[in-house]
Amino acid sequence: MCAAPALTDVLRVRGGATTRKELLDLGLRNELDTALSAGQAVALTGARVALPGLPDDKSAALAIGGVVSGLSAARVWGWSLKHEPTKIEVTVPRNSSRKARPGVVVRRRDLPSDAVGPGAITSRARTVADCARQLPFDEALCIADSALRDGLVTGLTRRDLIAEAEALPRTGRQRALDVIAVADQRAANAFESVTRAIVLPIAGLSVTPQGDLGFSDAGAEQYGDLVDARLQLLIECESWAYHSGEEPFRRDIRRYTDLVARGWTVLRFVWEDVMQRPEYVRRQVERVVTRLSTTARLR
Q1: CA-to-CA distance for 260 and 213, rounded, in angstroms?
Q2: First to last CA, the chain
Q3: Domains of the chain
Q4: Are 43 and 36 contacting, i.e. CB atoms less than 8 angstroms apart?
Q5: Residue 14 class from Cβ within 10 Å (0-12 exposed, 13-18 middle, 19+ buried)?
Q6: What is the pLDDT along the chain (299 residues), one digit of tens a residue?
Q7: How far is CA 279 from CA 193, 240, 273, 290, in A?
Q8: Is 98 within 8 Å of 65 (Cβ atoms)?
Q9: Where is 48: in which H helix or E strand?
Q10: What distance lies between CA 245 and its chain's CA centroid?
Q11: pTM
Q12: Of 283, 269, 207, nearest to 237 (Cα)?
């Protein structure tokens, strides 16, 4: 007769939690009582049992019989976000009687089994699709860009995201597909993703994340945050942490002087302007694109 599996092993395989009934069905009644008494497991509401020390997102989801979803799931996956969620988002079955708790937003949807990953969290592809149909465009693009960047390691592809979005209910499906269509793993972070979201609608502009700027006078290959090669326009997302200090300052001055001398127009934006003054950023880029496009037509 096979020995009963260790209770903690069962919980780990189930992503950190399972129902009390499943543990009893596996013949782990004594082990369960002992683990609860010793603090090696904790009882949640809804007759569920979990390992101690689960992240707040997962504990909140498991406590009401749901899964971490949306922006909260994107945070758990470790993706670059425009801002951190202020509440935990949990999806429960449509007919569930569970109610939201303080700090928790409950969404009622029936998720297919392949939309839920291990550990009470929506799968990577489903997380992107949900965020793309629910969030403002710039926030959703941050997540889609980051997911594709992460996909270079995890294997997640644009095709996976499109398939997941096409399986969504009609409401919000096209919105999700529109975000995924322009997502790009070359975007380095949320700062660049939000900047790109701001400038994407500008007529006559076509930017490439981490675009090729050619070779410097010293022979070094150069890249820029957002590059329109046709207009020779570089849009840089400048962070103080990366550019502070005497040597970075000198390096930047020489780099931008070299680019301007070779015919490039350089626009530099700080975090506060991109995140808090998007209309200012769009207006400034539009002015430059209009000027450069006019110049290009006159050549």
Answers
A1: 11
A2: 85
A3: 7-52 (no CATH), 57-182 (no CATH), 190-298 (3.40.960.10)
A4: yes
A5: buried
A6: 344 457 877 777 665 667 777 788 888 888 888 888 888 887 765 566 777 765 577 777 877 888 999 999 998 898 999 988 888 899 999 888 777 678 888 999 999 988 998 778 999 999 999 999 999 999 999 999 999 999 998 999 999 999 999 999 888 999 999 999 999 999 999 999 999 999 999 999 999 999 998 877 776 788 999 999 999 999 999 876 555 667 777 888 888 899 999 999 999 999 999 999 999 999 999 999 999 998 766 55
A7: 16, 22, 9, 16
A8: yes
A9: strand 48-50
A10: 30
A11: 0.80
A12: 269
What's the residue count for the chain?
A: 299
Token reading at 55: 């992240």
- Residue with the two structure tokens 């999806």: 91
C-alpha to C-alpha distance for 97 and 91, rounded to whole angstroms:
12
Q: 196 is written with which tokens? A: 């790109």
3-class DSSP state for residue 54?
A: coil
Q: Which two tokens stand for residue 237?
A: 């997302």
Give the position of tokens 């710039």: 138
On whether the CB atoms of residues 50 and 42 are closer than 8 A, the answer is yes
Residues 10/24, Cβ–Cβ less than 8 Å: no
